[in-house]
Amino acid sequence: MIVAGIDIGSISTETVIMQDQQILGFSILATGANHLQAAELSLTKALTQAGLTRTDLAAIVTTGYGRNSFLMPPKRSQKLPAMPAELFYLNPGYPHGDRYWRPR
Q1: Which member of 1, 33, 75, 97 lies 3.0 to 4.6 Å from 84 by CB, making a disulfide possible if both were Cys?
Q2: In the chain, where are the structural domains located?
Q3: 76: three-class secondary structure by DSSP
């Protein structure tokens, strides 16, 4: 199952595309004034990097400050575990990231 996670923050928007705990593509960009536009652009860039289209996704999960600006995602997270998990994956030395997700 291929899924997308989008963390829409007030400063930056991060998207990760994953399948079976493997990152297929990711994007990090400045959010700017339009949360929806930032989320859409970040998702598009991550999908392009992964060589996929939106129809390949089984689910999209949003989290962060702008999570409600994204139109009709299958699931929204009220908690904010996405950022520490991303940081831990990209930088295993990140403190406390392993509380949320640890690679096998």
Answers
A1: 97
A2: 2-77
A3: strand
Whether domain 2-77 has CATH 3.40.50.300: no
> Residues near 59 by Cβ (< 8 Å), separated by ≥ 6?
1, 3, 4, 74, 75
From 16, 8, 9, 4, select the one nearest 88 (Cα to Cα): 16
What is the residue-level pLDDT of the chain in tens, covering all 104 positions? 888 889 988 899 999 999 988 999 999 999 999 988 999 999 999 999 999 999 898 888 888 888 777 765 444 444 444 554 555 555 555 444 444 444 44
Amino acid at the residue 1 = M
Write down the pTM of the prediction. Answer: 0.70
